[in-house]
């Protein structure tokens, strides 16, 4: 046992010695999660293409802190990289607030088309103004409604129902516009609150609906995809500027390749969760006309999209094919 431990320590020391540059990357999700596996794949490609000169050490499970804390640390160069949701950047990179508006994206594929094109380049430039270099856009799933009472196929079905939402003004206003009642509460209280009738349901993606056990107490899942919030891998500009242009190109290419993998892993995880909850008796409603839901968001957009620049951005996002 002692020999095995010693061998492991020597191997780790040898690996660390071989790295001329070691970049620390943070993620709140556990090892094996699609975002973590995406960055690990990026790390492997970078290591191979630099002959081991540049190593990326991935710290999952919030080992370096929660998202907002690690974003700030990345800005100041305390850590080198972070994987986080656009929602966690709302107070730092204002354009990310627009990307958090309900029904902005018509599908996950639409969000890819937007982020992988000219608009994505504009958003990346906005990150750089905040001392962050956006390297790759990742998927974080589409949030939809689920509840314990009835299938939701129209806005009328939402009337008067109580849904848990995150403590976010946009979410609260969205529910109000749909005729439902928003009930902000900690995520950990959702299961018992649905079970006891304090709320009728909540909203989230399939993997969360599955892993949280919410499918056990709220069997009606309506695939309306009202919120598709992208995620990204961002690097400290301080750390980035220390690299040669050649090494920067290697990191950027590896990050882009990792995005393709991460999206595939996320899609697979969503399908696995969908299969699991339907096998357990959940009813997934897919036949839904989203148009009335989208039209109901006019007052929400009037409140949060106020500048000519943001109005133009929303129009261009909607026009992207």
From TrEMBL:
Highest taxon above the source species: Bacteria
Annotated compartments: Periplasm
Signal peptide: 1-18
Primary subcellular site in the record, as a coarse category: periplasm
GO molecular function: carbohydrate binding
Cited Gene3D superfamilies: Bacterial extracellular solute-binding protein, family 7
Entry keyword 4Fe-4S: no
A cellular-component GO term for this protein: outer membrane-bounded periplasmic space
Keywords: Periplasm, Signal
UniProt name for this protein: TRAP transporter substrate-binding protein
Species in which this protein is naturally found: Paracoccus haeundaensis
Top-level taxonomy: Bacteria, Pseudomonadati, Pseudomonadota, Alphaproteobacteria, Rhodobacterales
